[in-house]
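Appendix C reproduces, verbatim, an entry submitted by the partner laboratory led by Prof. M.T., so that reviewers can inspect both the input and the predicted structure.
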Amino acid sequence: MSNFTFLIDDWPDLFAAAREAEQDVNSAPRTSCFYARRTLEQGVKWLYAINEKTFSSKAPALRLRIISLCCSCINSSTITARFSIFKISA
């Protein structure tokens, strides 16, 4: 049983990475952080890919892409703070 089963149908790649992070959380926390960040990177990359006209940021750093994403679309400090937890953990 996974907390990420809602991803299976629409985003199987994200599900695989999230599931890997979830499985390793107790036995290998560093590995879990790696996969959590990888999942976040894949999700942000996908958002930029489907919204090329909306998001024009060419920033290579994940942090800058997230900030750009949040400021241009959502404008929510709560979401930015939650994304930052992944960046700090990894």
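The radius of gyration is 14 Å. Additional entries are available on request from the coordinating office.
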